[in-house]
Write a structure and sequence with these properties.
The structure is a homotetramer.
Chain A (H helix, E strand, L loop, with lengths): L1 E5 L4 H12 L4 E8 L4 H13 L3 E6 L1 H14 L10 H20 L4 E4 L7 H12 L5 E3 H5 L3 H11 L4 H5 L3 E5 L2 E5 L29 E8 L2 E5 L2 E2 L2 H14 L4 E7 L5 E7 L1 H17 L2 H19 L6 H14 L4 E8 L2 E8 L7 H4 L12 H6 L2 H12 L1
Parallel strand pairs in A: 1-2, 1-4, 2-3, 4-5
Antiparallel strand pairs in A: 6-7, 7-12, 8-9, 8-13, 9-10, 11-12, 13-14
Amino acid sequence: MKALVVYSGGLDTTVCIPALREIGFDAISTVTVDVGQPQADIASAARRASLLGADHHLIDAKQEFASEYCSAAIAFNADYFGYPLSTAIARPLIAKKAAQAALSHGPFDAIVHGCTGKGNDQFRIEFGLRLHAPGIPIRALIREKNWTRSEEIAYAEKVGAPIEQSKTKIWSIDENLWGRSIEGGQLEDPNYEPPEEIFQWTKSPQNAPDQPLECTIHFDSGMPVALDDKKMNPLEIITFANRIAGENGIGRIDIMEDRMIGLKVRENYECPGAVLLISAHRALESLVTAAHERRFKAVVDAEWADLVYRGLWGDPLFEDLSAFCASIQKRVTGSVKMKLYKGSLTVLGRTSPNALYSEADASFDDNTFDQSAMTGMVQTHGMASLLYARLKQKK
Amino acid sequence: MKALVVYSGGLDTTVCIPALREIGFDAISTVTVDVGQPQADIASAARRASLLGADHHLIDAKQEFASEYCSAAIAFNADYFGYPLSTAIARPLIAKKAAQAALSHGPFDAIVHGCTGKGNDQFRIEFGLRLHAPGIPIRALIREKNWTRSEEIAYAEKVGAPIEQSKTKIWSIDENLWGRSIEGGQLEDPNYEPPEEIFQWTKSPQNAPDQPLECTIHFDSGMPVALDDKKMNPLEIITFANRIAGENGIGRIDIMEDRMIGLKVRENYECPGAVLLISAHRALESLVTAAHERRFKAVVDAEWADLVYRGLWGDPLFEDLSAFCASIQKRVTGSVKMKLYKGSLTVLGRTSPNALYSEADASFDDNTFDQSAMTGMVQTHGMASLLYARLKQKK
Amino acid sequence: MKALVVYSGGLDTTVCIPALREIGFDAISTVTVDVGQPQADIASAARRASLLGADHHLIDAKQEFASEYCSAAIAFNADYFGYPLSTAIARPLIAKKAAQAALSHGPFDAIVHGCTGKGNDQFRIEFGLRLHAPGIPIRALIREKNWTRSEEIAYAEKVGAPIEQSKTKIWSIDENLWGRSIEGGQLEDPNYEPPEEIFQWTKSPQNAPDQPLECTIHFDSGMPVALDDKKMNPLEIITFANRIAGENGIGRIDIMEDRMIGLKVRENYECPGAVLLISAHRALESLVTAAHERRFKAVVDAEWADLVYRGLWGDPLFEDLSAFCASIQKRVTGSVKMKLYKGSLTVLGRTSPNALYSEADASFDDNTFDQSAMTGMVQTHGMASLLYARLKQKK
Amino acid sequence: MKALVVYSGGLDTTVCIPALREIGFDAISTVTVDVGQPQADIASAARRASLLGADHHLIDAKQEFASEYCSAAIAFNADYFGYPLSTAIARPLIAKKAAQAALSHGPFDAIVHGCTGKGNDQFRIEFGLRLHAPGIPIRALIREKNWTRSEEIAYAEKVGAPIEQSKTKIWSIDENLWGRSIEGGQLEDPNYEPPEEIFQWTKSPQNAPDQPLECTIHFDSGMPVALDDKKMNPLEIITFANRIAGENGIGRIDIMEDRMIGLKVRENYECPGAVLLISAHRALESLVTAAHERRFKAVVDAEWADLVYRGLWGDPLFEDLSAFCASIQKRVTGSVKMKLYKGSLTVLGRTSPNALYSEADASFDDNTFDQSAMTGMVQTHGMASLLYARLKQKK
């Protein structure tokens, strides 16, 4: 029997390989999808797969991730209660690429993942696999065996699987182009102050440079296309944004998060580029959208965030919301000037050829607009509310 | 004929006094409501009223403003597209106090305000006056005369009204305990970078202290009641929060705002205390609310913000939303540890006796929870979405 | 000076013509847009315009109204608190056609409408005129003169304007292909039972045929395209739907409506075709949409209804919502069988090639689905809510 | 070992009893909660429990169901995509009563229910049991054994369990005071026309009386308290409403429903009383609420329906929404006149001492209101939308 393991090289997915052999899978392939995680992790995954006798495949999906997934996160101002959905948006792409690998290199009797039964990723990965490789059975070995982390380590030691680093890891880390999540250990206590050592992408505000960095981000149809005068493709601009925002202490996120199965957990993220680019995008969007449009866009954004958090990338509502969003993004063209300084991020100015802003109308020192005509609108404002007050007073 | 002017002492309200005399009001009273604006403004209002022969009344509403209005803004995480509604929440109280003054010191033939016909305050003030002093006619002299700022100055000079300072003012300022707004002049250009001089309450991040300030904010039933170990009443705690947050460069807000009559304008605010206290409140609320409750609270908060922006404080929906909010706030008790540093604000930890957080459930190294039982939930996740994908593929 | 009157031939617009002459307009044109109102009204408008010396234009917009406006109302399940927006969706088209006429037959110094200052139509008509004929001034004579109905009649008699019918009319009627509204007089009292005489399009349930009518409505991409086996274009199908539904006592609507300026009014409508077609559309949509998609579509529908009620047809949010809706409608293909009988309307069955329905999954007598795998989902259901209950019980 | 079975007397719960003995439960109690199901079912449950040697308890919860559960359904205009939540609102009460019985008559080693793993009731019943009897393990035997209906029958025959009627039943029925649901068999096909025989509570429109029935429903604080001049308690009024509405062919519902696990199913309901009382309640609510309040109440109602559909009666958000709703209901006092005739239901009039309706304001023949003052509001309507149109035209 042949299995394809969606392989990160970490503890959870590594122990799946010997465990699969035990239940009768003799030919095991592994696939690692590069969405911007550390090169060391990618190399280590290849090495471990080889040690465990698996046929390893590496797929570079960074350009696609940047231009189709991160760009959607920008257009929808990705925000799930403060979290820019960094892990969430990568899972559907990993699942799609793994499914495609399963279809090209197979036939396989199973696609295997290492997600636990408490987390969100099981939903995201399995939905993606079912969507893109409908016929192939899915095995979730860690969940099926109900293994804790300690039990996984004990098993790995017993069978001699290569998990050295994982053993001593205190935190559980996930990393891609759009951000880095750190959880587990003492961080689970909502009142435990995160130690400086958990951060890799961002300087602490105190250690950030003493001089502010100012930059102008140029957008075309909702997508950042240049920083100051330098044109870049999506992958380049996100990489660059991560670097400059991280350098200036921007993008640390510490929140209580409600997982899909109803668990409340404390999560720490570093998403410097996401925070910088989304802040700029929001500022520009506020210049080109009408008031009621902007208000409803916020409702749509929240719905999209919820859907993406649950891993339903590509489902019918996802398509419908994308059509709504695209109708607005075609106008989100212009520039936003930002200041980055020791953890604080400030919009200094924004300009757009599509601005719904009229200086003549807005100015208090212009009388093309006849103020006195507003009397009726003011007098009828809250008409029913006043009737209600009258009724209350009578009682 | 007798008129009561809702009087700030600024240009708009000062020119109303001679203008009222011209249209036949011979007895003019003025009322200034102290909601935390600068003492100099309050003193100047009294002086100008006296110069103009008005019978002046000063009402100190700071305690009521803090404990009933700012506290509601905290409970509802006041946020109108980034703006904590500082001016908006003061207007209903000013109108109520002015209405009460009109009823006590009257009878008056008119209550007079100086709001222009382009802004939001005309709606807020008039609704409050109609609510609390239903019988008394309202006059909006600036709007009725369709005066621009320059025309007001010219008129004041002609009649000799005392507006010295106003004449040279470049920015239009509004200030109360909950924040300070700065608008007008070059700031109207969305791409003009705000000069340092417009800020009075907040140090610039660069000039803020080099050492971070850490503090713990204690909440009882949704209301901050102590800072570190010092118990304070609402007025004290907001005043203190303004001071420490402002000192550390926190609370500058620069946004595009959509006014009630549909105008898009650029607004600058300084709301250091509001930003600090609401951030802490949000962090605590996220610990004690269930996921779907938290999501709907965000919908309610947005509706409240919209209602309050439009000045409908005390209307029927306002009451209904308040009942909803109170049902949650009774649980929002606990402490939040914050770090303030050069414009950046970080939550370091949060704790509550009402936390909906279970360490045993959340931990990845605990197997009281049988992960394998989750299989069905994962398999059925997105069931209809997958049916949809099948249908698309068939075509 | 030349004026173009948006002319229905009724009292409000008829008195505008002599009133315009009085204020200096010497060349008056009239334009009547046929959106399905009674032919007698159209003929009477032409006759009166001629009597009053106006240059009359008639524009037949019925096909466009059916295929672009009514069809949108079907796709969005048009429902503003029970009202299928019959008058509301016609106003933007009337304004557009009048604006186009103004541009072709002008130049005009003003476009004139007869809407009063209490209603919604002033907003709808003027927005449409400003949108499609931006340069031309708008005059709202009835509103400017603050005329009541009695005053209009008195004026018409004085100047000898032809308003015979209008004078004796008890109700104020508006009629187009999508429905008929009846208001005014005693009907304003929310507790007054509408007399049978106000209805023209619908038989009373008691007078409807004793035999039910069954019919199958076929949809293609959200639009009804055939009834039973008869293919029809949008205009034909709506006309036919009005006839059969009206014949069977379907489509009478009696509601409290909240006008744009905050007035609550009682409104009566007859919209037989709209009720029939929207009911069928809803039934089909419920078969082809995923649960969360359907829930959000209801939010979008409500937003669209609100926007259209306010006359903002074609505004930016309108475009965005239309993009969302189109993404769903392309799947709304299939058939719905309906029964019409004495005022009751029943869906008997629905079928679609895009149904997200799986008989195997839904059946209780099929065990391809392993029920026992659901345990975890059930056990974790309401996890945070139960934690909350524990906390409450401890207190 | 002792088990308490939540017992309806139907097939699912009856087979649980012998199955429990097989897995070691020797002392079995049964509890039937009377929420208005047929007396024959209640008697049959007692008889079967006795035949199977169980210690049977019957709890009459009809008054509590009517006054606390159905009344909430009225206040929230219970509507889950057309379904008044009849089964859904009974489950939490059944679970609560069963939990209380377990605590009074125990100790028990398990509470047992017969819900399958495909339906919604497993979520509702188990949440209620965990809420009200937190310490006691729950067994879901049908789900655990993954039994189909045929397998249950085969098992019952093998062990000689009394299921005579169940065997021949074609439809799966659930019934309580608030409504009756019919599903299964051919009805699963969305295009199968429901046969007349499935209906028990409602006459078909064709067989309903030839004379309409008019009645006036009086509400006090959101609750119906009298019909015409007859005061009744909640149980009486709902019972009476079921009778008169059913008699007149009102309350048949045929919809596509999306179950909690994502299955789309076709459901048929008879809810005559619910449809009548909710229609009247809505009509009255529309008279006493402000426009924006009414719009937001619809959002709250939808959220409540969703929560209740998922069985989360009594969870934190449920409490918050109830506080919101109560704030409105205290004004929902007055009368609604309805006409019932052969399946059609018409509101003829509504009146309330709290009506937010002003005849003077609403009338078109009253000029206390100066229409001409509305010009500014109309001119600024859609201001940003028009700017947007200008920008588009320029391109």
